[in-house]
Amino acid sequence: MKATLTRAALTMGVCATLAGQSAVAEDGGPHTVTANFGVVSNYIWRGLTQTDNQPAVQGGLDYSHASGLYAGAWVSNVDFGVGDDTNYEVDLKTGFGGAVNDDLRYDVNLLYVGYPDIDDADMAELGGSVTYQFLTLGLSYTIYGQADNTEPYDVGDLYYNGALNFNLMYNLKLNVRAGYYDFDAPQVVDYTHWGLSVSRDAGDFGTVSLNYDQVDGDEPDMYDEDPKIWIGWNKTF
What we know:
Porin; globular
């Protein structure tokens, strides 16, 4: 989850949306263990490729409690281009979520993103979201960053996001999303992104998806603004 002015990088991602997961109750108690494994033709996070427009293999393990408390870990390969030695990303997440009523849900979480094979790239952010029926609105604030104060993904960055989720005919699901990254460092150009995904649960085969993402930076030369069309597959266990 890092970027330069000419090569932007970093998940939650649609990566988290596409990661398959299954629940396994322990003796019918309040504890749930979930696992996920997936393959994507391009790892896109907040509109930006994390694999230099190449495929990624991803997977994770999660724990949740009936009270709403949860925690998990997620791993993916990454490739930020020529001259960068980063090979993989490890995300650690914990949070608390619940429902106010049948239509209104909330979530507060803490996300740590690490790159064990390099220095000065890890970051952490505090985030929250509110979902009303099919609309979700969220905000994340970077509370820790190993980058210096002239680079992105450092303390003070803000990420605003929203999504619409619909159930379609033939067991298809539609996700329409948009986000805006407001970087604290004045040297770093802010950007907007948007996209959509159509997915279908194929039973034992897993879940497949077709996705589109687009970035619009305040200065076109600083981000790859070419449309990204990619496919995803995940399997539950």
